[in-house]
From TrEMBL:
Coiled-coil segments on the chain, per record: none
Pfam family name, one: TP_methylase
Protein name, as recorded: Cobalamin biosynthesis protein
Biological process annotations from GO: cobalamin biosynthetic process; methylation
Domain Tetrapyrrole methylase: 22-227
SUPFAM superfamilies (alphabetical): Tetrapyrrole methylase
Domain of life the protein comes from: Archaea
Keywords from the named record: Cobalamin biosynthesis, Methyltransferase, S-adenosyl-L-methionine, Transferase
Amino acid sequence: MTDADDLPEPATEVLEDREGIPFAGAGPGDPGLLTVRGRALLADADLVVHAGSLVNSELLDAFCDHAEQVNSVGKDLEELVPLMRDAYEEGRTVVRLHSGDPSIYGAALEQMDALESEGVPTYFVPGVTSAFAASATLDTQLTLNEVANHVAFTRPQGKTLSPEEDHISEFVRMGDVTTCIYLGTHAVRETMDRLLEDGVDPDTPVAVVYHASWPDEDVIRGTVADVADAVEEAGYRASALVVIGEAVTGGGYERSYLYGDWANGGSDDGGEADRDAEAAEGDD
Ligand SMILES: C[S@@+](CC[C@H](N)C(=O)[O-])C[C@H]1O[C@@H](n2cnc3c(N)ncnc32)[C@H](O)[C@@H]1O
Protein backbone atom coordinates (compact mmCIF):
# COMPACT_ATOMS: atom_id res chain seq x y z
CA MET A 1 0.00 0.00 0.00
CA THR A 2 1.23 3.53 -0.76
CA ASP A 3 2.49 5.39 2.27
CA ALA A 4 0.61 8.69 2.60
CA ASP A 5 3.97 10.46 3.00
CA ASP A 6 5.00 9.26 -0.49
CA LEU A 7 2.03 10.91 -2.17
CA PRO A 8 2.66 14.09 -4.19
CA GLU A 9 1.61 17.44 -2.79
CA PRO A 10 -2.10 18.06 -3.40
CA ALA A 11 -2.66 20.20 -6.50
CA THR A 12 -4.40 22.72 -4.26
CA GLU A 13 -1.17 23.55 -2.48
CA VAL A 14 0.85 23.60 -5.69
CA LEU A 15 -1.58 25.94 -7.43
CA GLU A 16 -2.01 28.23 -4.46
CA ASP A 17 1.73 28.85 -4.66
CA ARG A 18 1.60 29.49 -8.40
CA GLU A 19 3.06 32.73 -9.67
CA GLY A 20 0.77 35.23 -11.31
CA ILE A 21 -2.80 36.45 -11.17
CA PRO A 22 -5.45 33.74 -10.80
CA PHE A 23 -8.65 34.21 -12.80
CA ALA A 24 -10.94 32.45 -10.37
CA GLY A 25 -14.58 31.46 -10.51
CA ALA A 26 -16.71 32.80 -7.65
CA GLY A 27 -19.42 30.24 -8.36
CA PRO A 28 -23.08 31.06 -8.97
CA GLY A 29 -23.72 33.12 -5.84
CA ASP A 30 -23.95 31.06 -2.67
CA PRO A 31 -20.65 31.63 -0.82
CA GLY A 32 -20.73 27.91 0.03
CA LEU A 33 -20.27 27.13 -3.65
CA LEU A 34 -16.92 28.91 -3.91
CA THR A 35 -14.22 26.29 -4.31
CA VAL A 36 -11.76 25.55 -1.52
CA ARG A 37 -8.97 26.82 -3.75
CA GLY A 38 -10.86 30.01 -4.59
CA ARG A 39 -11.40 30.66 -0.90
CA ALA A 40 -7.72 30.12 -0.10
CA LEU A 41 -6.68 32.52 -2.86
CA LEU A 42 -9.09 35.19 -1.64
CA ALA A 43 -7.83 34.80 1.91
CA ASP A 44 -4.37 35.85 0.67
CA ALA A 45 -5.52 38.61 -1.67
CA ASP A 46 -4.66 42.29 -1.29
CA LEU A 47 -6.71 43.30 -4.34
CA VAL A 48 -9.83 41.54 -5.64
CA VAL A 49 -11.18 42.68 -9.00
CA HIS A 50 -14.69 41.23 -9.18
CA ALA A 51 -17.59 41.00 -11.61
CA GLY A 52 -19.93 43.37 -9.80
CA SER A 53 -23.52 42.40 -9.14
CA LEU A 54 -23.09 38.86 -10.48
CA VAL A 55 -20.84 38.10 -7.50
CA ASN A 56 -22.90 37.87 -4.33
CA SER A 57 -21.93 40.69 -1.94
CA GLU A 58 -22.28 38.18 0.91
CA LEU A 59 -19.38 36.26 -0.62
CA LEU A 60 -17.29 39.43 -0.89
CA ASP A 61 -18.11 40.33 2.72
CA ALA A 62 -17.31 36.82 3.94
CA PHE A 63 -14.06 36.21 2.08
CA CYS A 64 -12.69 39.53 0.77
CA ASP A 65 -13.37 41.99 3.58
CA HIS A 66 -9.66 42.40 4.29
CA ALA A 67 -8.80 43.21 0.65
CA GLU A 68 -9.25 46.20 -1.62
CA GLN A 69 -12.23 45.43 -3.87
CA VAL A 70 -12.70 46.83 -7.36
CA ASN A 71 -15.85 46.29 -9.42
CA SER A 72 -14.87 45.59 -13.04
CA VAL A 73 -18.27 46.50 -14.48
CA GLY A 74 -17.99 49.55 -16.73
CA LYS A 75 -14.19 49.36 -16.89
CA ASP A 76 -12.52 48.56 -20.20
CA LEU A 77 -9.33 46.56 -20.77
CA GLU A 78 -7.25 49.75 -20.94
CA GLU A 79 -8.27 50.51 -17.36
CA LEU A 80 -8.40 46.99 -15.92
CA VAL A 81 -5.12 45.63 -17.24
CA PRO A 82 -2.85 48.44 -15.92
CA LEU A 83 -4.74 48.33 -12.61
CA MET A 84 -3.99 44.62 -12.13
CA ARG A 85 -0.48 44.83 -13.65
CA ASP A 86 0.60 47.74 -11.43
CA ALA A 87 -0.74 46.08 -8.27
CA TYR A 88 1.01 42.83 -9.18
CA GLU A 89 4.30 44.60 -9.93
CA GLU A 90 4.08 46.42 -6.60
CA GLY A 91 4.10 42.98 -4.98
CA ARG A 92 0.44 42.91 -4.05
CA THR A 93 -1.52 39.67 -4.30
CA VAL A 94 -4.18 40.12 -6.96
CA VAL A 95 -7.19 37.88 -7.62
CA ARG A 96 -9.49 38.41 -10.61
CA LEU A 97 -12.86 37.04 -9.53
CA HIS A 98 -15.35 36.13 -12.25
CA SER A 99 -18.90 34.95 -11.63
CA GLY A 100 -19.62 31.24 -12.04
CA ASP A 101 -16.75 29.72 -13.98
CA PRO A 102 -14.43 32.16 -15.75
CA SER A 103 -14.35 30.07 -18.91
CA ILE A 104 -18.07 30.55 -19.62
CA TYR A 105 -18.97 33.94 -21.09
CA GLY A 106 -16.35 35.52 -18.90
CA ALA A 107 -14.11 37.31 -21.45
CA ALA A 108 -11.25 36.20 -19.22
CA LEU A 109 -8.77 35.21 -21.90
CA GLU A 110 -8.51 38.67 -23.45
CA GLN A 111 -7.57 40.10 -20.03
CA MET A 112 -5.13 37.25 -19.43
CA ASP A 113 -3.48 37.66 -22.84
CA ALA A 114 -3.14 41.41 -22.29
CA LEU A 115 -1.57 40.82 -18.86
CA GLU A 116 0.75 38.12 -20.22
CA SER A 117 1.91 40.50 -22.94
CA GLU A 118 2.77 42.97 -20.15
CA GLY A 119 4.86 40.24 -18.50
CA VAL A 120 2.31 39.30 -15.83
CA PRO A 121 1.61 35.55 -15.62
CA THR A 122 -2.00 34.44 -15.21
CA TYR A 123 -3.87 31.19 -14.74
CA PHE A 124 -7.42 29.83 -14.45
CA VAL A 125 -9.06 28.54 -11.29
CA PRO A 126 -12.42 26.96 -12.12
CA GLY A 127 -15.72 27.69 -10.46
CA VAL A 128 -19.25 26.30 -10.43
CA THR A 129 -21.03 27.67 -13.47
CA SER A 130 -24.61 28.88 -13.06
CA ALA A 131 -26.00 26.09 -15.27
CA PHE A 132 -24.90 23.58 -12.63
CA ALA A 133 -26.51 25.62 -9.86
CA ALA A 134 -29.70 25.90 -11.95
CA SER A 135 -29.74 22.16 -12.50
CA ALA A 136 -29.49 21.62 -8.73
CA THR A 137 -32.28 24.13 -8.17
CA LEU A 138 -34.46 22.25 -10.64
CA ASP A 139 -33.69 18.94 -8.91
CA THR A 140 -32.65 17.43 -12.19
CA GLN A 141 -29.66 16.42 -14.28
CA LEU A 142 -28.64 18.23 -17.42
CA THR A 143 -27.92 14.87 -19.02
CA LEU A 144 -30.55 12.25 -18.27
CA ASN A 145 -30.65 8.71 -19.55
CA GLU A 146 -32.90 8.42 -22.65
CA VAL A 147 -33.99 12.06 -22.21
CA ALA A 148 -30.96 14.28 -22.79
CA ASN A 149 -27.64 13.01 -24.09
CA HIS A 150 -26.03 16.40 -24.61
CA VAL A 151 -25.83 19.86 -23.05
CA ALA A 152 -25.43 23.11 -24.95
CA PHE A 153 -24.19 26.27 -23.23
CA THR A 154 -25.29 29.09 -25.45
CA ARG A 155 -26.54 32.67 -25.65
CA PRO A 156 -29.16 34.36 -27.83
CA GLN A 157 -28.48 36.58 -30.80
CA GLY A 158 -27.90 40.26 -30.10
CA LYS A 159 -25.04 42.72 -30.18
CA THR A 160 -22.42 39.96 -29.79
CA LEU A 161 -24.06 37.11 -31.71
CA SER A 162 -25.43 37.47 -35.25
CA PRO A 163 -28.64 35.63 -36.25
CA GLU A 164 -26.47 33.14 -38.20
CA GLU A 165 -24.47 32.39 -35.04
CA ASP A 166 -27.58 31.78 -32.93
CA HIS A 167 -28.06 27.98 -32.82
CA ILE A 168 -30.73 27.75 -30.11
CA SER A 169 -33.43 26.42 -32.47
CA GLU A 170 -31.04 23.80 -33.83
CA PHE A 171 -30.11 22.59 -30.35
CA VAL A 172 -33.74 22.41 -29.20
CA ARG A 173 -34.91 20.69 -32.38
CA MET A 174 -32.32 17.95 -31.82
CA GLY A 175 -34.63 16.76 -29.04
CA ASP A 176 -32.06 15.18 -26.75
CA VAL A 177 -30.11 18.33 -25.88
CA THR A 178 -30.56 20.37 -22.70
CA THR A 179 -30.05 23.94 -23.85
CA CYS A 180 -28.75 26.35 -21.22
CA ILE A 181 -29.05 29.96 -22.31
CA TYR A 182 -26.79 32.48 -20.59
CA LEU A 183 -27.22 36.23 -21.00
CA GLY A 184 -30.74 35.79 -22.32
CA THR A 185 -33.12 36.86 -19.55
CA HIS A 186 -34.04 40.09 -21.31
CA ALA A 187 -34.74 38.21 -24.54
CA VAL A 188 -36.95 35.31 -23.42
CA ARG A 189 -39.92 36.51 -25.51
CA GLU A 190 -37.86 36.93 -28.70
CA THR A 191 -36.10 33.59 -28.13
CA MET A 192 -39.37 31.68 -27.63
CA ASP A 193 -40.98 33.41 -30.63
CA ARG A 194 -38.04 32.36 -32.81
CA LEU A 195 -38.30 28.78 -31.55
CA LEU A 196 -42.00 28.69 -32.47
CA GLU A 197 -41.27 30.18 -35.90
CA ASP A 198 -38.62 27.50 -36.40
CA GLY A 199 -41.15 24.73 -35.74
CA VAL A 200 -40.15 23.66 -32.22
CA ASP A 201 -42.87 21.80 -30.28
CA PRO A 202 -44.68 24.55 -28.28
CA ASP A 203 -45.02 22.15 -25.32
CA THR A 204 -41.24 21.76 -24.93
CA PRO A 205 -40.50 22.39 -21.23
CA VAL A 206 -38.61 25.54 -20.22
CA ALA A 207 -37.38 26.69 -16.83
CA VAL A 208 -36.06 30.15 -16.10
CA VAL A 209 -33.92 30.07 -12.98
CA TYR A 210 -33.32 33.50 -11.52
CA HIS A 211 -30.35 33.95 -9.15
CA ALA A 212 -29.70 30.22 -8.76
CA SER A 213 -28.26 29.52 -5.28
CA TRP A 214 -28.94 33.08 -4.02
CA PRO A 215 -31.35 33.75 -1.13
CA ASP A 216 -33.85 35.28 -3.58
CA GLU A 217 -33.56 32.40 -6.05
CA ASP A 218 -36.74 31.90 -8.10
CA VAL A 219 -37.89 29.39 -10.71
CA ILE A 220 -40.40 29.98 -13.45
CA ARG A 221 -41.53 26.81 -15.18
CA GLY A 222 -43.46 26.71 -18.41
CA THR A 223 -43.23 25.78 -22.03
CA VAL A 224 -41.87 27.39 -25.16
CA ALA A 225 -45.42 28.63 -25.78
CA ASP A 226 -46.11 30.28 -22.43
CA VAL A 227 -42.95 30.90 -20.37
CA ALA A 228 -42.33 34.42 -21.71
CA ASP A 229 -45.59 35.72 -20.21
CA ALA A 230 -44.59 34.48 -16.76
CA VAL A 231 -41.06 35.91 -17.01
CA GLU A 232 -42.43 39.30 -18.03
CA GLU A 233 -44.93 39.18 -15.20
CA ALA A 234 -42.13 38.46 -12.74
CA GLY A 235 -40.14 41.34 -14.23
CA TYR A 236 -36.84 39.52 -14.64
CA ARG A 237 -34.55 41.19 -17.19
CA ALA A 238 -31.14 39.80 -16.09
CA SER A 239 -29.36 37.23 -13.90
CA ALA A 240 -31.38 34.19 -14.92
CA LEU A 241 -30.53 31.05 -16.79
CA VAL A 242 -33.02 29.78 -19.37
CA VAL A 243 -33.03 26.00 -19.56
CA ILE A 244 -34.90 24.27 -22.38
CA GLY A 245 -35.58 20.57 -22.87
CA GLU A 246 -37.31 17.55 -21.38
CA ALA A 247 -34.59 17.16 -18.72
CA VAL A 248 -36.00 20.27 -17.03
CA THR A 249 -38.88 18.14 -15.73
CA GLY A 250 -36.62 15.48 -14.21
CA GLY A 251 -39.01 12.84 -15.57
CA GLY A 252 -39.21 10.32 -18.38
CA TYR A 253 -35.77 8.79 -17.90
CA GLU A 254 -34.85 5.13 -18.15
CA ARG A 255 -32.88 3.23 -15.57
CA SER A 256 -29.24 3.45 -16.59
CA TYR A 257 -26.75 0.70 -17.30
CA LEU A 258 -24.54 1.93 -14.48
CA TYR A 259 -26.76 0.46 -11.77
CA GLY A 260 -28.42 -2.07 -14.05
CA ASP A 261 -28.00 -5.81 -14.21
CA TRP A 262 -25.33 -6.09 -16.83
CA ALA A 263 -23.14 -3.51 -15.18
CA ASN A 264 -23.41 -5.08 -11.74
CA GLY A 265 -23.85 -8.74 -12.60
CA GLY A 266 -21.10 -8.65 -15.19
CA SER A 267 -20.08 -11.51 -17.43
CA ASP A 268 -16.77 -12.86 -18.44
CA ASP A 269 -17.31 -11.60 -21.99
CA GLY A 270 -14.56 -9.09 -22.86
CA GLY A 271 -16.87 -6.67 -24.65
CA GLU A 272 -19.22 -6.54 -21.70
CA ALA A 273 -16.33 -5.89 -19.38
CA ASP A 274 -15.23 -2.93 -21.50
CA ARG A 275 -18.73 -1.52 -21.45
CA ASP A 276 -18.89 -2.04 -17.69
CA ALA A 277 -15.71 -0.05 -17.31
CA GLU A 278 -17.08 2.76 -19.45
CA ALA A 279 -20.37 2.76 -17.59
CA ALA A 280 -18.53 2.91 -14.30
CA GLU A 281 -16.87 6.12 -15.48
CA GLY A 282 -20.25 7.68 -16.23
CA ASP A 283 -22.72 9.25 -13.91
CA ASP A 284 -25.88 8.11 -15.57
C1 LIG B 1 -21.59 37.20 -18.20
S1 LIG B 1 -22.42 35.68 -17.96
C2 LIG B 1 -21.32 34.95 -16.82
C3 LIG B 1 -21.57 33.49 -16.60
C4 LIG B 1 -20.67 32.89 -15.54
N1 LIG B 1 -19.30 32.92 -15.96
C5 LIG B 1 -21.07 31.46 -15.18
O1 LIG B 1 -20.27 30.55 -15.37
O2 LIG B 1 -22.18 31.27 -14.68
C6 LIG B 1 -23.77 36.19 -16.97
C7 LIG B 1 -25.00 35.32 -17.17
O3 LIG B 1 -24.83 34.12 -16.42
C8 LIG B 1 -26.09 33.73 -15.91
N2 LIG B 1 -25.98 33.68 -14.45
C9 LIG B 1 -24.94 34.06 -13.69
N3 LIG B 1 -25.17 33.78 -12.40
C10 LIG B 1 -26.40 33.22 -12.35
C11 LIG B 1 -27.20 32.66 -11.31
N4 LIG B 1 -26.79 32.65 -10.04
N5 LIG B 1 -28.40 32.15 -11.63
C12 LIG B 1 -28.83 32.12 -12.90
N6 LIG B 1 -28.12 32.62 -13.93
C13 LIG B 1 -26.92 33.14 -13.66
C14 LIG B 1 -27.12 34.71 -16.39
O4 LIG B 1 -27.67 34.21 -17.60
C15 LIG B 1 -26.27 35.92 -16.66
O5 LIG B 1 -26.86 36.74 -17.66
